[in-house]
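Researcher: Quick sanity check before group meeting.
Model: Go ahead. Protein one:
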Amino acid sequence: MVDDRLEETGPPNLKQLRKRGLEWFAEGENHDYFAPEMLYLEDRELSAYSQAAGDLYDRLLLAAKKVGEPELFKAAGIPQNAVEAVAHSLRREWGNHLVGRFDFAGGLDEVPLKMLEFNADTLSLMPETLSVQSLQFEQLPRSERKGTRQWNKLLPALTKGWQKLLNRYTGRPATLLLIGLGHEEDWLNLDVIEMAAQKAGFEEVHRAPLEEVIFSEEEGVFLEIAPDEYLRYDFVFKMAPWDFIAYEEPELMGLLTQIIKRDLCVVLNPAYSMLLQSKGLLPLLKELKIDHPAILRASTSAADFPDNRYVEKPIYGRTGDNIRLFDGQPAAAAENPGDYGGLPKIYQELALFNIDSDGDRYQPSVFVAGGEACALCFRRQDSLIVDDDAEFVGHYLGG
C-alpha cells in the first residue's frame, strides 16, 4: 500500500495554472485531473526507475537496429507503406530520436518494476510533468518540503537533445515547425518542445495544424504565410503519429518518405521511432536476444498464456483504448473500447501495480530526452486499466 507515501497538497493553484497557460488541464471535464496529494519516493527507488529507463532505452534501440538487419518489419508491426521510411531512417537518421516516455508498473514497496510500453513517437504528460508537479511541490507543507526535491530535468534534457540535432545539421537554418492535429493537449505539449528548442538556439519556431502544412516531395515542408508567400522549414516536430499517417494518410506517408530520403527536412521524432513505438517489437525481444529484468513476457498469441493471465493490446493503441485484461478466467476482467480494434494485437504478461487502500493503481512514467532518462511522474486510477481517466500524481524525494 502506498498510502503512507502520500502527502496532502491540495490541487494546483488555478491562478498559477492560468498564469502558465495550463488551465485546460484543471477546468471543465478535467477539473479532477490533478490528484490533491504528492507521492514520496526514496533516492534508491528513483535510481531504480532512472536506471531501468536508461537500460531499456538502450535495449530497445538495439532491438530496432536488429529488426532493420534481418528485415523483420512485418513481424515488428510496420505497415508496408512505412517500411521504406523506417529503413531509411535507421540507416541515415540514427541518433535523431528526441523524446519518449516509458510507462511502468511497480517499483515501490518491493513490487517488481516492469515496463508496460514505450511511447516513442508522440507523447503526452510533458507540461504536467515539467510545470504542474513543480507547482504542487511548492504547496507541500513547509516542514515536509525541507530537504526534499523532485527529479524533473525534462527541459534541460530536451534542450540538450535539440542542441545535438543543431550540431549534427550545422548547414541547415534553425527553422522549426511544430505540427499538431488540432487538439488543445497537443499544443500544450508542443509548448514544452518549443521552450526547449528556443533555449537550444532555434531562430524561428512556428506552429500549425496538419491540414495547413504543405508537403512537397521536391522541395520540403512549407507554410503559406501570405498569399503566394511561403516559408520553408528545415526541422519539423509533429504530434501526428507515424502510424496514424501510415494508416490514415497514405498519400502523406509517401510524401514524407521522399522528403526524408532526399534530406529536405529533419522530421521528428524520426521514422524509426515507429519501431520503438510498436508493441509488435515486444514479442520479438526474446528472439532478438534482448533481455532485462523489467521486460514482461509478450507474444503474438494468447495461447502462450494458458493460465489466462495476460493483457491484450493493439500494436499502436494509445490511452488504454482497445485493451482487454484477463486475470485467470476465459472472460475479460476489464476492457476498453476505442479506435484501434482493427490493428494486430500482442499479448503481454500481467504486471503487479502498487495500490493504495482505495484500490487505486499507480503507474509511474519516466521520460527519456536527449538520450537520457530525465523526469518522473505518476498516474493513478481506480480500475484495472490505466487510461485517459487517470489522475496525474506528482512526486517528491526525501532528504
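Researcher: Fine. The other one?
Model: Protein two, sequence then structure:
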Amino acid sequence: MSGLLLGVDVGTSSTKGVLARPDGQVVATAERPHGLSMPRPGWAEHDAEGVWWADFVSICRELLKKADDGIAAVCTSGIGASVLPADGGGKPLRAAILYGIDARAEREIEELNDRYGREALLERCGSVLTTQAVGPKLLWLRRNEPEVWEKTEKFFMASSFIAYRLTGEYVLDHHSASQCDPLYDVHANAWIDDYAEELAPGLPLPRLLWPAEVVGEVGREGSEATGIPAGTPVAAGTIDAWSEGASVGVQNPGDLMLMYGTTMFIIEVLEEPLHHPGLWGTTGILPGTHNLAAGMATSGALTGWLKKISGDVPYEELTEEAAAVPPGSDALVVLPYFAGERTPIFDPKARGLICGLTVGHGRGHLYRAMLEATAYGVRHIFESMREAGGGGERLVAVGGGTRGGLWTQIVSDVTGRPQELPEQTIGAAYGDALLAARAVGLAEPETDWSKISATVEPNPENRETYDDLYRVYRDLYPATREASHELAARQKGGEVVV
C-alpha cells in the first residue's frame, strides 16, 4: 500500500493541514486563521460548523489540488478537552465550550472535587477537577442550558467531530477521554460508568479507540464536501498537543515536549501513571503509555497583547528591543496570569501583575519580562513534575515561539535545561499525518519522522540572576492572591473576539 497521508489540526487561532509521504516528506501545507469567541469573561468558544468543519473542508480542497498520489489515510487533531453538545444526528446544539481557558464551571469543579474527593480523583482519573475537565462542563450545561441538554445525545471534541462528519462513527480516542475527568479510569483505560451516569445521565458515551486506530472510512457525504475519496480510512486522532508530540518523536518514557504557542504546554511520557495535584495525569497516545501534562493559560498571548497595545509593532522589532535588555529586565518581574492560570496553581481568578516597574523601564523591558514570566512558569511546572516522581530527561521544544532564539534561550537559562529543536516545525498536523500512516500500516508504532537541527544550552552566567528573580516570582502570587481575586470579582465585560 502507498499513497499520501492527510493530517489536519484545528487549533485555538488557526487550522493547519499537511500532505506527507510515508517517509515523512512534506508534499504541501495549508493554513486558515480563525477567531476565538469569548462571549463573557472566563468563557471561550468555537463555532464547530463555521470554524472546525469549514476550515477542514477548505484545507482539504486546497491540499488535494496539490496531491501527486492517492490519499492513503486521513487524521485530525484539535484543541481539547472541549465539549460540543450535539443531537442524535450529530448536529451541534450550541458553540463548543473549549478547554482549560474556559472557566465557566468553577462552581461545579469545586462541588465535584468535594463530592468525589481529590485524592480519589487523582488516583483513579489522574487529575483533580480543573477548568480543563469535561465532567464539570457537562454538569454546567445540564444546569444552565437545560433546553440544550434535553436534546444532547452526543458530545464531541474537534477531532471526533471531524471523524464523525467523515465516517458517521461516534468515537473518541483514549487520550482525549482521559481528559474527560472524572469520567475515565486511567488504569483500566475505560469509561467510569457510575460517574458518567451521575454527571451526564442518559448521555451515550463514544466508543473508545487509540489515536492511530482506524475509525471507519470516508462516506459519500464527507467525500462530496471535502473531495477526499469515499472509502479512504480515517484515524481517530487526538488532542493537538499530543499530535505535536508525535510529530517530534516525543513518545518514549523520559521524553518531554515543551510547546511554545498562544499558551505554553508541556507533556512528559511515562511508563506508569503518576499524579500531582498541580498537574494532569493522562493516558498516552500509544497503548501502555501514560503522561504528566501541564499547560499555562497564556504565553504567546502575552506578547501578542503587548504587540497589540504597542500599535502592532512587528515581533522582530520587539524581539530586537528585548534582546538589548539585560537578563532579568532590570529587576522587572511579571506574573503571566492575564487569563487566570492553569497548572500548577489552577486559579481562574488569578490576574496578571507587573512588579518593579519604573520610569526607567521601556517597551523592550516589558517584552523581555513577559518572555521571562513564561519561563518562570515553566520552571514552576518542571519542579511540580519532579515532585510527582517524573520530570523527564530529554526536552524537545516546538511551536512558533521557538523561532528567533531569544525566547528559547531565556527558558533554558531560567530552567537550567537544554532544549532540542526539531528541523520540522509544522506542528500537530504533521503528527496527524504520522498517526494516519501508522493506522494503515505505512509506519510502525515507533516510527519517528523528526530530525533535531539544534540544541539550546543554558548560559550559566545568567543562572544567579534568574534564581533570585524566580524566588520573587514565586512569592508574588501568594502575596497578591486576595487582591487579584477581589479585582477578578469586580471585572465585567461584553463580548471579546480575538
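Researcher: One line on it for the slide.
Model: The radius of gyration is 22 Å.
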